[in-house]
Amino acid sequence: INCATFPEGLLESELFGYMKGAFTGAVQNKEGLLELADGGTLFLDEIGEMPIALQAKLLRVIETGTFRRLGGLKDITVDIRVVAATNRNLKEAIKEGLFREDLYYRLNVIPIHIPPLRERKEDIPLLIDYFLKKTGAPSIKFSPEAMRIMLAYEWKGNVRELENMIERIVLLSEREYILPEDLPVEIKGSVQMGGQIPELTELGIDLDKVLEDIERSYLKKALELTGGVKTEAAKLLNLTFRSFRHRLYKYGISSEDE
Predict the structure, then answer these.
(1) For 92-119, what is each residue's pLDDT tens digit?
(2) Pick from 24, 66, 151, 197: CA 20 to 30 A from residue 184's CA?
(3) Is the pTM above the cut of 0.85?
(4) Domain span at residue 163?
(5) C-alpha torsion sign, points 80, 81, 86, 89
């Protein structure tokens, strides 16, 4: 269960279950995930988002192996293994009073640090193949240039962002061989263009010329990525259309809108 996707009351009822009449809408008894996981493993994703009051109840389950459903009077005994994950710094959350220190040490028995996706680029092609199969499109392939762009992207949302992006590409693409132009604009636009920035030495450099060359390169690349559509190219560079058009005129760059 993803702790970040449920409001506090709903998360508690999902975990602990409830008795008929425990709250409005509780028309019958319901087992929670703790009961359903008895004898197995319960995975709590984004544990750092769990409300602190609920953390105390979870700690009791881990320590005693017992709990009560919402509205219940009977202790229920379970034998479960709890695995938790988070992208937050829980030690900082403890200092801020947002996470219980005792729960942290109960959970932190065998910690496994998974680096962000941008630090393990070698996993991206494997994950792309996996998500293509998961979405029912195993025949789709990425061209070398499209894959290069996917590898260069930062993926700040990590694996979830990659999965959502693959699903989007599958839904919107009209072909099975993905080219750079088939990739979403935000991916193409955020990948830095190639080229080397001159090194500063004792001989000095013409800074104005270097900056002009960089700006010209970005303008041309933005037009290339958007098929020459100036309004979209301006958005990629976070410029107003007027400012973008002025820069095109300044550098003598021409393009026809589609």
Answers:
(1) 999 999 999 999 999 999 999 989 998 8
(2) 197
(3) no
(4) 117-190
(5) positive
Q: How far apart are CA 183 and CA 189, in angstroms?
A: 10
- Give the chain's domain count: 3
| Domain end call among 67, 83, 107 | 107
Closest CA to 253 of 208, 226, 210, 218: 218
Query: Minimal CA–CA distance to 212: which of 254, 249, 250?
Result: 250
In this structure, the answer to whether residues 226 and 149 fall within a common structural domain is no
159, 165, 179, 169: which is closest to 118 by C-alpha?
A: 159
- Cα separation, 15 vs 66, in Å, equals 13
Nearest in space to 147 (alpha carbons), one of 174, 171, 127, 167: 127
* CATH label of the domain that carries residue 129: 1.10.8.60
Chain-centroid distance, C-alpha 55: 24
